[in-house]
Design goal:
With 446 residues, the chain is of the alpha+beta class. It is 31% helix and 22% strand. It has two domains: 293 residues, 3-Layer(bba) Sandwich (FAD/NAD(P)-binding domain); 128 residues, no CATH class. Strands 1, 2, 6, 7, 8, 9 and 21 form a seven-stranded mixed sheet that branches. Strands 12-13-14-11-15 form a five-stranded antiparallel sheet, with no helix packed on it. The protein starts with a strand and ends in a 6-residue tail after the last helix. The chain binds flavin-adenine dinucleotide (FAD).
Amino acid sequence: MNQYDVVVAGGGTTGLAAAVAAARHGATVLLVEQLGFLGGNAAIVPAWLGFHSLDGELMVKGIPLEAVERLQLEGGATDFHRDPICGSVVGVNTHWWKLVAAEMASEAGVAVRLHSRVAGVERRSDGTLGVTTECRGTRGDISTRTLIDCTDTGEVAAMGGAELSRGRASDGSVQVASWSFAVNGVNTLELIDYLLEHPEEARPFPDVELYDWLAGLRQAEIFVLGAFKSLVARARAEGMDLPRNNVPGVVFAHRGEFFTVASRVVDVDPGDPENLSKAELTGMRQTKEWLTFLRTYVPGFSNADLAATPHQIGLRETNHLLGAYQLTGEDLMAGRTFPDGIAMGAYHLDIHPPDHAGIDTQRPPHYQIPFRALLPREADGIAVAGRAISATHEAMASTRVIPISMALGQAAGTAAALATRGGCELRDLDVDKLREALAADGARVS
Ligand SMILES: Cc1cc2nc3c(=O)[nH]c(=O)nc-3n(C[C@H](O)[C@H](O)[C@H](O)COP(=O)(O)OP(=O)(O)OC[C@H]3O[C@@H](n4cnc5c(N)ncnc54)[C@H](O)[C@@H]3O)c2cc1C
């Protein structure tokens, strides 16, 4: 079959949610992914997911929550644990993500085309979109009414005529990239003893919350760190070349693993292969240095070894859709609501600034994301979900995380199916009906 109601480009967790939602609403759906599995970033290096607001309210539900509950049933995810910065954290196992993502797509009746890149989009005179896929020189041509870009760069939407911008508004710079990695063999009891003796070494946030959080460490399956500031300072003084002044990461206490985004690669140009090649090599060099640091300086890490490395450097930010509405950091911090709100978020604005070595964190109240942030200003038949929605450098530092991106995927997929059924353009969709459909499917829209 070469004709589908909906084509989803990019089979990460956002694309999975979009495809499953559209198929559950009766659309014929093709999900196109250039790698050999579904799940994207989430299925490559371990991550921690935040679903709750700071006051403990579950802000993201629907397909993202369903996926985590399925992972938990398989033993592929921890329970939810309270966190003073992320709201809550749940740790997921990358291998289980791949299996559960494949099952969810298959159960929903989504056609999956792996090892295939969306390489071209053309507008046809009958109002359909022609989508070209490529697999090692073999081309495939598909016709569709709606294309959802979940590639994380917006590049497929741009092929269909959508406008994009790059990075932050002032100079186009993007957040720093990281060659994230995980180590195993961590003696977590020794590590926790050290953190309890040196609480100032655990995380940078107000004391009262820190002590409250520390009290629960011995029972936690998973906990987040922004740690070892004085150990990093000592190692630097003794000649180590470490790109950050502390180590952000997450401890999977029950299995003696630590995942970290301590690598910090600056001046990355996501569109320049030479620059990206240098960035990969820098990330690998930094990883070796960090591993030596952990083994030499940090209690509990003397036997640690590499357990997971990424398939490519992690780009936190590339392009942003210039959409019918652009979500801003101010919208998030004000907890702004919208008549066309289709998803909620409360994750902190986790900005890894291009030009200094720390992380700028702002903790918003819960906020809403409008449907218009998923739609290009002009190009019909296209929606964008995930990292490249129409949001500023500051706002996307919160909306980019996996649960919120998946909620946006679910909204885009549901909208595409409803537009197909109603024979209308996405921008003419009755947004109240979309919100009702999402709520009926268990998603949170307000
Ligand atoms: C270093 C780093 C650490 C992070 N840590 C966390 C964390 O702990 N928790 C969290 O919630 N979030 C984290 N994030 C953010 C999160 O990983 C992403 O924002 C999230 O994965 C978004 O999911 P996605 O499906 O939109 O994108 P991705 O997972 O990147 O999936 C996009 C998919 O599109 C495919 N693709 C791209 N172009 C094409 C094309 N032309 N044709 C076909 N397929 C294509 C790619 O192969 C990929 O599988 C982190 C990000 C980085 C960079």
